Amino acid sequence: MRILIVEDDDRVAEALEAFLSRSGYATVRAVDGAEALEMLGSDTEVVLLDLGLPDIDGIDLCRRIRAQSGVPVIIATARSDVQERIRGLRAGADDFVVKPYDVRELLARIEAVTRRLHPLDALPPAPADRAVIEADGVNVDLVARRVLVDGTPIDLTRKEFDIIAVLARYPGVAVPRDRLIREVWNTDWQSFARSLEVHVASIRRKIGRASLIETVRGVGYRLEA
Fold it and tell me: Where does the OmpR/PhoB-type domain start and stop, copy by copy (predicted)?
């Protein structure tokens, strides 16, 4: 997921970029409104917007962003007045957090606004009669909990198998990260996002087919059918 951070304070921006990077997100930063509008693109999936910008009021910038894109906008500012929150939401913001905030809360809010774009229950029902799934020489046996590559068993950890099993139930369908975390770790706690990324990388390495599990930007992962 690519997050556009609009923040003129270097210290705040650097800390935020470091935290989001550790949480598995790609970030770009704009220091003012003009730069933000230039950097806003089709691959921008969330905007974190500070209101106190040097060239334009953040509320006005929010309106401009909303006029050209439906990207989720989260206002993050030191302005705690209720009227400011109302102005921000009426300008098109999807959420509003007041500085200083807990970065874990911010992460949860990012996941919440993206979840509204990619609902967890949007997946079709998994086929009940498919115990074995095959793709590109990879055989996933859901009953025996075994993965074969060209007939050779692959040693996966329990979590690794659980991840590929969820993906195998929906071949060719993008499975949201939230859905994978919920099914594999039995929780909605988004600090597992980085762990999911590490496990997927390990599965790709062990299977030897990096393209088998495709990263779907802003959504999750898909097993190539």
Answer: 130-225
